[in-house]
Design brief:
The complex is a heterotrimer.
Chain A (H helix, E strand, L loop, with lengths): L1 H13 L8 H7 L42 H8 L5 H5 L2 H9 L14 H15 L1 E3 L6 E4 L3 H5 L12 H4 L3 H6 L8 H12 L9 H6 L8 H7 L16 H22 L18 H4 L8 H6 L13 H12 L3 H18 L6 H21 L7 H14 L8 H15 L6 H16 L32 H21 L1
Antiparallel strand pairs in A: 1-2
Helix pairs in contact in A: 10-13, 13-18, 16-17, 16-19, 17-18, 19-22, 20-21, 20-22, 21-22
Chain B lengths: L9 H4 L10 H28 L29 H7 L8 H6 L17 H4 L14 H8 L2 H7 L42 E3 L5 E3 L7 H4 L5 E2 L14 E2 L3 H4 L14 H5 L27 H18 L1 H4 L17 H21 L19 E5 L8 E4 L24 H4 L1 E4 L3 E4 L14 H7 E2 L8 E2 L2 H4 L13 H8 L1
Parallel strand pairs in B: 9-10
Antiparallel strand pairs in B: 1-2, 3-4, 5-6, 7-8
Helix pairs in contact in B: 11-13
Chain C lengths: L1 H17 L8 H23 L6 H34 L9 H20 L13 H16 L13 H14 L2 H32 L1 H24 L1
Helix pairs in contact in C: 1-2, 2-3, 3-7, 3-8, 4-5, 4-7, 5-7, 6-7
The chains are: A mainly alpha, B mainly alpha, C mainly alpha.
């Protein structure tokens, strides 16, 4: 009881400096712990984790006795792209960005009257790109996203976390020391999206993207698959593929995306956001080829001409649709709210911000209620595959209406396949590879394109029986169909 | 003859007063006596003034203590020491004063020795300029002539199978390592258990787990060496002749021989590398590995493999395309590296530790198993390579536990004059012909007795005194610091 | 230790010789003991020292000890043989303390004899033709009387008995028969005197050796005591 009181009060103190007005937002955000340096916990820097007897060994621990690999620091340092994030600020692209944002000159020096702005901008970048080491009064930055960015500020638990007594603490007690539990996909995803999608402190908006920042297209299983793993694979929670991982990624991403949208549509006096925030729309609504047969024109012209950014929500939407069929009312509500949101978004500048905000709020609320009501174990691979199959059962062109949809479908199928190599699995992988090629941003050796050049071509018909393969989109469609078929038979058989 | 003197009356001739006169002779004598006494005392005083207390020494102190000749109290700590010693007063023993500067103690030899003796029992001072260290055999024989009685009286904890009657070198018992034990004695391994085991015949055999064949190496036709050997020469068909001195290098201070060093003696022919296993491109990994423990070898191999991997990552690691179509193809680092390293490590270690390759002619390298006893401490489990262990050879640096043998003084002899063993079946096998490392190539005491005789022997021979080989103070405590000595010298 | 005891005994003996009050056995017994134990102490001392000479004190001690022994042996020899020799060769002995007295008496007797025959002893008249009486008188004054002194001149012809006999014989020939008896009497007196002289000499030898033996034995004693004390003390 006493401990509960203490930890609650500590918790309260930790969040004490969260502004009152955004608390509504932060209620949902609390799990995605902020990177803010609290007055109690502070970062020590990755070097303090990197003793060779701890996490800085040059060789991994080969036995199964130990929970850790011991060479985590080295892996992070050598292969983890997070390590380079701080240096990216001063890379060629980084400097160009500052210049394009109008705060520095060509060489990277701040412009005379823009120093404050530059600093503000720089600090803004640091929120995601660096780890602030040291206490609030004396903090400095020298490394990118390092250990404590994800695992929590270590000032209080560095010397206790390896002791037996620490493992006997409850989750609550552990987190009161600043230690962040990353034991399942949910917790991991929440930490990822706080930078990769955004939070109240992290906002990669269109201005930044225009300046050169890569667009944010996070997908949990794809990112995890590529991530250099500094942990020992232990059981389900460490799987990078599979139904649970994918679904969790989707739920967390959708939630975070809607929350970010809410922030960007905020109309209250203190946090009034400037709308429209262009990154909340489909990139290719504006960034498109001017040729006639672009898929954008076929799908968007006439109906809602702008599309909202479907990257984060579409997958979940598809699943929710399937759940609607099985009588999940909350899922149905979510779908409905999403539809109306998309409708408002589709109207572009002609919809007013307040109704947009209201709609977003409703959609977010509906999503949260739905997610609270579900039992994740019901969302098995079979169910999810069935959901995707169902989506194309009537109109198999629906997944190809935009590149985002198609790519989400591809990633979902990839994850649900779980990379099995046996028999059918190999064929599926081949198909996925082919899909990938057609969906990819081509790399022409010296330059990497920024959009899916090869995702084009007319869909002659949307009927399920149509197996034509003449255009790329048709090819993608048929690949998708065969993958779905194979996956279905795999899970039935 | 009758007295016919002319003087008639006694009274005329007799001076009756004479008895009243004092006897001049006696008076003079008395005076002389008194004078003599006074002179004597004076003489002693003069001598004392000149020589201090050293005047009262029976003989000068030994040369090493001559600096303290005037300071009797340094050794004679209590006054009236002799009567006190006779009465058994503890502080009158010559022990504490000696241990002020010297680190040797009576108990070095036996824990109860001090009950019967003190330092001065064997080290007789005031005998002129002799060496106190050259203790006469008689002192040793005092106890060792009838050892069981002495031991019994001193409550010895050791077994009494120690030979108990030694008078001179002629009656010296057999060297323990060469003793043939009776069946009932086999159970008591004695101290030799550190260096030797006992075979079923009751003989001591070398305990080392190292395999070495002297005969092969010392062959009269020479031994083949690889071309990389510094002494390789085609004119001798690639053979060189090894001698005892090639590997058994005597210490610079002539107190014995240096321990055999692999790096000095063996590595030129028995290099530890595993080049055959690697593909051409990986020969850079195949530098010889040092002669060290399996753990360190593993660490070294890992380091080399890691370095190799990192320098050649593009060739080694599998290309794993990123799933995301927005990203270009990229590789994954660590998991593949681990797998590759683990496989390689296992294979290389297996070759190093257990390969059968031993022939120099095939210019293959040697494996540890050629000479060592290699075993697996922990077998492979769940992808972890097995943990090898090599039994430490336990080659003793000193075989004779309680004696010292001065090789420098015997340098006119040939090594094989003494280094041989007597096998039951094959008779005398000299070191050069020994084929197994189980042989303990030490001679019996009889070999020593051929030249060394006690002084009672008629024919001229080398002396065999106890102190020539043995040291009473063989369990030396830590060396004392020299502060006391310096104090004495400086004052 | 035994050597020490022997020494103690020896010393006691000399004390015993002088302590006439408490007689623990005859002097001769003690004397014999003294000698034999003294001799016994020699090998004892040698064994004690281990046939080695030690330090300064020990060396002096040994020297003095040897001196004592040597002088003792010498004395023993003297004491053994001289008295007998004296008894055999000197028949006209006197008590040693009385010798001077006896010599004076002899001198006055000789004087008396000469006066009886020659009238006065000292005649200042120098006659031209010395008569026999004068010759005798002169002979007496020149040779006999000085010889009769307590300390005769060392060049006196009468010291040697053979020479004295020849001198007297010569003198007797130059005098008449009537005076020869006087000369014979004088000769006897001189003979007695001579014997007393010899006796005195031997007496000195007999006694003076102790002047060496006893003082140095005392100093030996002192040294031994010092030796013992220091040996025990250190």
């Amino acid at each position: 009881m006493f401990l509960a009181v203490v930890s609650w009060s500590v918790f309260g103190l930790v969040n004490a400096d969260v502004p009152e007005s955004s608390r509504v937002v932060n209620v949902a955000n609390r799990k995605a712990t902020s990177r803010r340096i609290s007055s109690h916990h502070y970062n020590l820097g990755s070097r303090s984790c990197a003793a060779s007897a701890c996490h800085g060994s040059i060789k991994a621990d080969e036995t199964n006795d130990d929970l850790i690999r011991r060479d985590e620091y080295l892996i992070w340092q050598k292969s983890d792209p997070h390590e380079t994030s701080f240096r990216a600020l001063s890379s060629k692209l980084g400097l160009e960005m500052f210049h394009r944002l109008g705060v520095t000159d060509v060489s990277g020096r701040a412009l005379p009257d823009k120093e404050d702005e530059y600093l503000a901008q720089y600090n803004n970048c640091l929120n995601c790109h660096a780890t602030k080491i040291g206490s609030r009064e004396r903090s400095y930055v020298m490394e990118g996203v390092s250990c404590e960015s994800c695992h929590g500020s270590a000032s209080e638990w560095r010397v206790t976390h390896y002791q037996e007594s620490f493992s006997e603490l409850s989750d609550h007690e552990k987190s009161s020391t600043g230690y962040r539990n990353l034991q399942d996909h949910d917790l991991v995803a929440q930490r990822c999206v706080s930078c990769h999608i955004g939070s109240d402190q992290a906002n990669v908006n269109h201005d930044l993207i225009a300046a050169g920042h890569p667009a944010l297209r996070f997908e949990l299983t794809a990112y995890l698959d590529q991530y250099p793993k500094h942990w020992k694979h232990r059981g389900e929670s460490h799987k990078t593929d599979g139904a649970e991982a994918w679904f969790t990624g989707q739920t967390v991403s959708a939630t975070a995306a809607l929350q970010q949208l809410l922030r960007r549509a905020n109309t209250d006096s203190e946090h009034h956001a400037v709308w429209p925030e262009l990154s909340e729309f489909n990139c290719y609504a504006c960034h498109h080829q001017l040729s006639g047969d672009s898929w954008r024109m076929t799908t968007t012209f006439g109906s809602s001409s702008l599309k909202g950014n479907e990257w984060y929500v579409f997958g979940l939407y598809t699943i929710a649709l399937q759940r609607k069929q099985t009588g999940d009312e909350r899922a149905a509500m979510f779908c409905q709210k999403m539809d109306s949101l998309n409708e408002i978004l589709g109207r572009g500048w002609s919809s007013d911000q307040q109704s947009l905000e209201a709609s977003v709020r409703e959609a977010l609320g509906a999503l949260e209620r739905w997610l609270k009501s579900i039992d994740k174990s019901e969302f098995t691979a079979e169910f999810l595959i069935a959901a995707w199959s169902e989506a194309v059962s009537e109109d198999h062109g629906v997944l190809l209406e935009s590149w985002d949809r198609a790519t989400q479908a591809y990633l979902a199928l990839y994850a649900l396949n779980e990379e099995s190599n046996d028999g059918d699995g190999a064929k599926i992988l081949d198909n996925l590879e082919s899909m990938r090629e057609l969906l990819s941003f081509p790399n022409e050796g010296s330059r990497q394109l920024n959009s899916p050049r090869d995702f084009h071509g007319e869909l002659k018909s949307n009927s399920p029986e149509d197996n034509s393969n003449s255009t790329n989109r048709e090819k993608i469609r048929s690949l998708m169909n065969s993958i779905l078929k194979a996956l279905n038979s795999k899970h039935e058989g | 003859m009758p007295d016919t003197r002319a003087i008639k009356k006694i009274s005329e001739r007799f001076d009756v007063e004479s008895t009243r006169y004092s006897n001049a002779i006696k008076a003079t004598r008395k005076k002389l006596t008194r004078a003599a006494v006074v002179l004597t005392i004076l003489l002693v005083a003069i001598i004392y003034a000149i020589e201090d207390e050293a005047a009262f020494q029976s003989k000068p102190v030994s040369a090493h203590h001559s600096g303290f000749a005037r300071k009797c109290e340094l050794c004679h700590e209590s006054s009236f020491q002799l009567p006190k010693q006779i009465l058994g007063v503890e502080s009158a023993r010559f022990e504490h004063a000696c241990t002020e500067c010297h680190e040797q103690h009576l108990s070095d030899h036996h824990v109860n020795a001090r009950l019967k003796a003190d330092c001065s029992t064997c080290h007789k001072e005031h005998s002129g300029n002799n060496s106190l260290v050259e203790v006469d055999d008689n002192y040793c024989v005092t106890c060792h002539l009838g050892l069981s009685e002495s031991l019994a009286s001193l409550e010895s904890p050791k077994s009494v199978s120690f030979h108990n009657s030694i008078e001179a070198i002629e009656s010296h018992p057999e060297i323990r390592i060469k003793q043939q034990l009776r069946p009932d004695e086999k159970n008591s391994l004695l101290e030799s258990g550190e260096n030797a085991n006992i075979d079923p015949n009751g003989h001591f055999v070398d305990r080392t787990s190292l395999r070495f064949n002297h005969k092969v190496h010392m062959h009269s036709d020479g031994i083949l060496v690889p071309p990389s050997h510094p002494k390789y020469s085609t004119s001798d068909n690639g053979r060189i002749q090894l001698s005892c001195k090639t590997c058994h290098i005597s210490k610079s201070d002539h107190t014995g021989f240096e321990p055999i060093s692999f790096e000095q003696s063996c590595v030129q022919c028995h290099e530890l590398s595993f080049s055959q296993y690697l593909e051409e491109s990986q020969k850079s990994l195949s530098e010889p590995i040092p002669h060290t423990t399996p753990e360190l070898i593993r660490g070294l191999l890992r380091e080399r493999l890691t370095n190799y991997y990192e320098n050649n990552e593009s060739n080694l690691s599998g290309t794993r395309p990123s799933r995301l179509p927005t990203k270009p193809q990229s590789r994954q680092g660590s998991t593949n590296r681990d797998k590759w390293m683990s496989e390689k490590l296992q294979a290389i270690e297996a070759q190093i530790f257990t390969s059968d390759q031993s022939s120099i002619e095939s210019s293959a390298s040697s494996s540890c198993q050629l000479c060592h006893k290699v075993s697996i401490e922990r077998s492979e489990s769940q992808g972890n390579p097995p943990l090898w262990s090599i039994e430490p050879p336990k080659i003793p640096e000193k075989w004779l536990q309680h004696a010292r043998f001065d090789h420098a003084r015997h340098q006119l002899m040939d090594c094989t004059d003494c280094h041989y063993t007597d096998d039951i079946n094959d008779g005398r096998i000299s070191a050069v012909d020994s084929t197994t490392s189980k042989h303990i190539l030490l001679p019996s005491i009889k070999t020593c007795q051929e030249c060394h005789k006690s002084k009672r022997h008629k024919k001229p021979a080398f002396r065999g005194r106890c102190v020539d080989c043995h040291n009473y103070h063989h369990a030396l405590p830590e060396r004392k610091d020299d502060t006391r000595l310096l104090e004495l010298i400086q004052n | 230790m035994l050597a020490f005891l022997a020494m103690i005994w020896t010393w006691l003996l000399s004390a015993r010789k002088r302590a006439t009050k408490r007689q623990l056995g005859t002097v001769s017994f003690w004397l014999k003991g003294h000698i034999w134990i003294g001799l016994l102490s020699v090998p004892l001392v040698f064994f004690h020292t281990g046939f080695q000479f030690g330090g300064t004190l020990e060396q002096i001690l040994m020297g003095i000890f040897l001196l004592v022994i040597a002088s003792g042996l010498l004395g023993q020899l003297i004491q053994q043989y001289i008295p007998r020799f004296m008894t055999a060769s000197l028949d006209k002995q006197a008590i040693p303390e009385q010798v001077d007295n006896v010599v004076s008496a002899l001198q006055s007797k000789a004087d008396g004899l000469v006066v009886a025959v020659c009238g006065t002893l000292f005649d200042s008249v120098e006659s031209e033709s010395p008569s026999q009486i004068d010759a005798i008188r002169r002979f007496h004054l020149t040779h006999v009387r000085p010889f009769m002194d307590i300390h005769p001149p060392s060049d006196s012809v009468l010291i040697n008995s053979a020479l004295a006999a020849s001198v007297f014989a010569t003198q007797k020939q130059s005098v008449s028969v009537a005076h020869r008896e006087l000369l014979d009497e004088l000769f006897d007196l001189c003979d007695e005197r001579r014997q007393l002289l010899i006796q005195r000499k031997w007496h000195a030898i007999l006694h003076y050796w102790t002047f060496l033996h006893i003082p140095i034995s005392f100093s030996l004693l002192v040294l031994v005591i010092i030796h013992i004390l220091t040996a025990l003390y250190y």
